[in-house]
Amino acid sequence: MKTLAKLILAGLVATGLFASTQQVATSDSAAPVVQPDSAVISRIIDGDTYELTNGTKIRAVGVDTPEVHGGKECYGPEASAFVKSLVPPGTEVKLSYDRAEGESGHTDRYGRTLAYVTRMDGLSVNAELIRTGHARVMMIRPNVSHQVEYEGLQMQAQTNKAGLWGVC
User: Count of domains in the chain?
Assistant: First the structure.
């Protein structure tokens, strides 16, 4: 019976009908971190925007990749291709947030969920985009819990002329 209950719960999570948004206490009460949800990538829209199998659109928080829609920017196609290699459709990921659902800062003005995207092997997609020079840091309050880490990664990418820093 317990196995059946676990299978039903797993199905609800996979379809997006049930999601955990339990907050975890942190030392910085101004920026609570919310426990991650599991999700599956359906498609990559561009370097920093992804769609999940449940239809939710995710905007990778803390990063800005060059545009590929509505006017291509230098290194935009490369950034999108890089993300597709990191998290191709069908990839299971963990999503974590600086804000709980319903709180200011959980979604952007386009209705996209603002999230940190992490592969199941622990690789942070957001951080990897910056480390490899496929994205710039873009921090907008209240979503700034990784600001110091991301700025350090960007300085290294600039120094090494990685990705867009060596071309654009």
Answer: 1
Question: pTM to 2 decimals?
Answer: 0.77
Contact between 44 and 84 (Cβ < 8 Å)? yes
The CA R_g of the chain, rounded to the nearest whole Å, is 16
Phi, psi of 2 (to 5 degrees): -65, -35
For 34, 46, 57, 67, 112, the CA distances from 70, given in Å and listed in that order, are 33, 12, 18, 8, 18
**Which DSSP string corresponds to 143-157?**
B-TTHHHHHHHHHHH
Task: Please report how many Cα atoms fall inside a 13 Å half-sphere around the Cα of residue 109, on the Cβ side.
Answer: 1
Query: What pLDDT does 4 receive?
Result: 38
The verdict on residue 99 lying in a domain is yes
Residue 158, domain member (yes or no): yes
Q: What is the mean pLDDT of each run of 10 residues along the chain (168 residues)?
A: 40 36 32 66 96 95 93 92 97 88 77 94 97 96 91 97 96
Instruction: Give the residue numbers spanning the domain of 93.
Output: 31-167
Distance between CA atoms of residues 143 and 99, nearest Å: 7
Distance of CA 148 to the CA centre of its chain: 17
Residue 10 belongs to some domain of the structure: no
Reported as a single tens digit per residue, the pLDDT across 12-30 is 333 333 333 223 333 333 3
Q: Looking at the domain assignment, is residue 46 inside a domain?
A: yes
